[in-house]
From TrEMBL:
MF-aspect GO terms: calcium ion binding
Family in the record: Belongs to the recoverin family.
InterPro entries per the UniProt record, alphabetical: EF-hand-dom_pair (IPR011992), EF_Hand_1_Ca_BS (IPR018247), EF_hand_dom (IPR002048), Recoverin (IPR028846)
Keywords attached to this entry: Calcium, Lipoprotein, Metal-binding, Myristate, Repeat
Keyword check for Repeat: yes
Protein name stated in the entry: EF-hand domain-containing protein
Gene3D superfamilies for the chain: EF-hand
Residue intervals of the EF-hand domain: 33-68, 69-104
Record bears the keyword Repeat: yes
Domain of life: Eukaryota
Amino acid sequence: MTRYQVFIKDYPGGKAEKAEFVLNFCKLYPWGDPDEFAEYLFALFDRNMDGVVDFDDFIRIESTLTRGSLEEKFKLIFDLHDIDKDGFVTYAEILRVFKSMDKLMRKLPPMQLSSEMRVNRFFAKMGRSSYDKLNRNEFLQGCCNDPEMVTVS
Ligand SMILES: [Ca+2]
Ligand SMILES: [Ca+2]
């Protein structure tokens, strides 16, 4: 199946409304509580913020994930965490995404460190305070300092 056929199979109308997108994503994690993470994911896909994910939105993320450079993939991780899309990630934003990921995996063995501990460690390793905003380069640098960030993201 081509990517288009895969997309059309899930979304016969050729575009995904938010509720539909979240519902489909939730089917992938029947053991967890994925609603919140699905919303962040929807915002990541819906680059032009028109409230629907169409095939262009879909393929842009899909091709970055499958064929993008490391830098492009990092950019996606940054965008995912930049919930209000202001070009910076804050402690609170990273924590919200981490917590939503923990809920995604709720019924799997719990992470050894809580979300708070992981975000604290991320900021501590960079020598930054939890009040600081990080731009994309700083965030990337932080991910390099703390590779576990990337694997959990
Ligand atoms: Ca869109
Ligand atoms: Ca932000």
